[in-house]
From TrEMBL:
Protein name as catalogued: 8-oxo-dGTP diphosphatase
Hydrolase listed as a keyword: yes
GO function terms (MF aspect): hydrolase activity
Coiled-coil annotated spans: none
Swiss-Prot/TrEMBL cofactor(s): Mg(2+)
Keyword annotations of the record: Hydrolase
Signal peptide start and end residues: none
Length: 130
């Protein structure tokens, strides 16, 4: 299974948990709204990567049963997970990002700070959801 990383669009209730990326010139899309995720560690499956990165970046321990959709895009996996809205009190930003917020999916899709390829991936999920 060849891949380089994984991202998770994490719904807490009806809203997405998004991370405002650091404002650094050496990272892609500085100052943009991102989803939890990142690079694969050796031996990890795509879902293991996504779950680990979510804990590291926002402090939430997801289980595989929280994952409701997944798709591989080139060398990266994109997951969608759903948790109850009350899990918002468990969110703790890790050492990456300027902050986090909740955002309605349609607001993310229209936001100029949304990462363009995540807009496409989120639209894919929402289209399949109907």
């Amino acid at each position: 299974m060849d891949f380089t990383g994984a991202k998770t669009a994490l719904f807490l209730g009806d809203e997405l948990l998004v991370i405002l990326r650091d404002q650094k010139d050496d990272i892609p899309f500085p100052g943009h709204f991102d989803f939890p995720g990142g690079g694969r560690e050796e031996g990890e499956s795509p879902i293991e990567c996504a779950l680990r990165e979510t804990v590291e970046e926002v402090g939430l321990n997801l289980s595989e049963t929280d994952i409701v959709w997944s798709r591989q895009y080139d060398q990266n996996w994109f997951f969608v997970a759903r948790r109850p809205a009350q899990d918002v009190h468990l969110v703790q930003l890790g050492d990456e990002g300027q902050g986090w917020c909740l955002m309605h999916p349609q607001d993310y899709l229209a936001d100029p700070l949304a990462i363009p390829y995540f807009v496409v991936r989120l639209k894919d999920y929402l289209t399949e959801l109907g």
